[in-house]
Design the sequence.
């Protein structure tokens, strides 16, 4: 029953995020907001809504390790699982924006996040505000100076929905996110108790894979439809958002305390390691690209991260 609750919760979170994004994009188009801005702001926040709601609800309901583990685990899963599967199916050509902005910002935000946590084993309001302000500065820089690198974030061929459909999507999305987060958190806590493991382990493994499914399905669908090249920047951007937006907003609403120190002694180092590894993999075995060999390396590392958690 606990596992079923987690599965149902994740399903509701995915559907809720999808409905919310449809409504948000529709409203933005209705107000004639440029697509590039919609992509970098509205779509980015909407796709991060499941992680954001889960983290806020977890912190408020006294389960901070679920909030932290979800973000750290999602960042590991985005690169070690989603990116790995994607490039094993079809290679990705790496654009200059990866070296100029995406990768450096991911590493910097990860280091700042770790620094805030390791000082006193918690993330408080002013630290969350710093993280969120950094995100706003980063988005402003991209929109103003790196337009070409973020054009692919803009929704393509989207049209504004009727007002009634927009409001329905908005209400359904909000309700599904709330219900999904409640169900998933209760299921995750129960599952941890049943398996005799910490909430952190459940969050960095099962929960984080679940909340990474939308990114994986979107990547595979794009490959099947032979759409434009899947961007490495999309997944790296998601990692940046998870730290700066999800953790930033959560900490501003409620302090997030590290209860299971395994998060700082183990999980976050896997996040650093796999993030750093992406850079040399871009040049290995040849060219500025990521292919099936790189995917095999990443998925192997991800398996080595997951398996010991349950042993």
Sequence:
């Amino acid at each position: 029953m606990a596992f079923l609750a987690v599965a149902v919760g994740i399903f509701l979170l995915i559907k809720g995020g999808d409905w919310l994004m449809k409504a948000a994009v529709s409203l933005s188009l209705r107000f004639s907001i440029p697509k590039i801005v919609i992509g970098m702001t509205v779509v980015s926040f909407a796709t991060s809504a499941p992680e954001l709601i889960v983290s806020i609800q977890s912190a408020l309901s006294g389960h901070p390790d679920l909030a932290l583990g979800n973000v750290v685990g999602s960042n590991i899963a985005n690169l070690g699982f989603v990116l790995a599967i994607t490039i094993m199916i079809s290679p990705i050509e790496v654009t200059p924006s990866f070296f100029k902005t995406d990768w450096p910002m991911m590493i910097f935000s990860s280091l700042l996040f770790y620094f805030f946590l390791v000082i006193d084993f918690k993330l408080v309001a002013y630290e969350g505000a710093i993280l969120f302000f950094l995100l706003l500065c980063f988005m402003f820089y991209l929109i103003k100076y790196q337009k070409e690198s973020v054009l692919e974030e803009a929704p393509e061929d989207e049209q504004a929905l009727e007002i009634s459909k927009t409001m329905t999507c908005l209400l359904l999305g909000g309700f599904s996110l709330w219900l999904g987060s409640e169900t998933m958190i209760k299921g995750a806590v129960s599952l941890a108790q049943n398996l005799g493991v910490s909430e952190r382990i459940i969050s960095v493994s099962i929960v984080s894979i679940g909340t990474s499914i939308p990114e994986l399905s979107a990547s595979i669908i794009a490959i099947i439809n032979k759409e434009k090249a899947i961007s490495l920047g999309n997944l790296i951007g998601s990692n940046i958002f998870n730290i700066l937006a999800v953790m930033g907003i959560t900490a501003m609403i409620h302090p997030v305390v590290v209860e299971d120190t395994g998060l700082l002694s183990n999980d976050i180092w896997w996040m650093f390691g796999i993030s750093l590894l992406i850079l040399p993999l871009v040049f290995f075995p040849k060219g500025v690209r990521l292919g099936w060999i790189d995917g095999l390396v990443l998925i192997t590392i991800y398996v080595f991260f997951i398996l010991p958690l349950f042993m």
User: Anything to note?
Assistant: The radius of gyration is 18 Å. The beta strands are 92-93, 122-123, 256-257, 289-290. The chain has a mean pLDDT of 85.
